[in-house]
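Checklist before submission:
- one chain only
- standard amino acids only
- sequence pasted in full

Submission:
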Amino acid sequence: QVQLEESGGGSVQPGGTLRLSCAASGAIFSFNAMGWYRQAPGKERELVAIITPRDTTDYADSVKGRFTISRDNAKDTVYLQMNSLKPEDTAVYYCNAVQPPFEYWGQGTQVTVSS
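Returned file contents:
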């Protein structure tokens, strides 16, 4: 059983920065992919960014150029650097790991962008 623990959420003003961390209980290099999703009130959960063991990355169009996903295999941790935050980035952010046939989720961390 893999456990994922997010941290780093909080409240910031528009234009601010946050870095989210996702610490995994297992070796992340063994996962097919790890990613960050978010869910805003009244909306469906959506993919924000994803990274593969070969460090291939992909991003939602809404965050391209502002967010960066990275991984540290030695620490079994995935990060999401969020710059130039906008009010529409406000959501609960969830860490995700895929290890077929299983998929794992963290508990989520709240990010609020408001003036």
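Reviewer check: DSSP finds no helices and eleven strands in the chain.
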